[in-house]
Amino acid sequence: xxxxxxxxxxxxxxxxxxxxxxxxxxxxxxxxxxxxxxxxxxxxxxxxxxxxxxxxxxxxxxxxxxxxxxxxxxxxxxx
Length: 79
Hints:
The chain has three helices and no strands. The chain is mostly helical and 79 residues long. It has one domain.
């Protein structure tokens, strides 16, 4: 796949209402479950927060792909 196609696909996913709504709901549910987890159940809280981090990482990766350009790296010296 080309970088331009990857960027277009990432933009599509970031803007698709079903994807946006689903990720928002999943993130909010995980945050609520972490907040409402029993006080002494650290493993559950960590698992819910890991879900939140993975959703945010996915969004961040898609955003980076969407903003990337298909321009090749310049060759030659930096100076």
